[in-house]
Amino acid sequence: MSVLVNALTRGRGRIALFAAAVLALLAQPARAELRIDITRGNVDPIPIAIPAFGGDDDRAAKVGADLAGVVQADLERSGLFRGIDSRAFIQTFPSMQVQPRFPDWQAINAQALVQGRTATTPDGKVRVEFRLWDVFATQQLKAQAYVTEANNWRRIAHIIADQIYERLTGETGYFDTRIVYIAESGPQTKRVKRLAIMDQDGANHRFLTDGADLVLTPRFSPSTQEITYMSYYNGVPRVYLYNIDTGKRERLGDFPGMTFAPRFSPDGNRVIMSMARGGSSDIYSMDLRTLERRRLTDTPAIDTSPSYSPDSQYIVFNSDRGGSQQLYVMNADGSGVRRISHGQGTYATPVWSPRGDYIAFTKMAQGRFFIGVMKPDGSGERLLADGFLVEGPTWAPNGRVLMYFRQNPSDSRGLGGDSYLYSIDLTGYNERRVVTPTEASDPAWSPLIP
Amino acid sequence: MKIRVLSVVAASLLVAACSSGPQEGADTSGAGKASAGSSVTAPAPGSPEHFLANAKDRVFFALDRSDLDESSVKSLMGQAAWLKSYPNTKITVEGHADERGTREYNLALGERRANAVKNFLQAQGVAAARITTVSYGKERPAVMGSNEYAWSQNRRAVTVVQK
Question: In this predicted complex, what is the ipTM?
Answer without folding.
Answer: 0.90
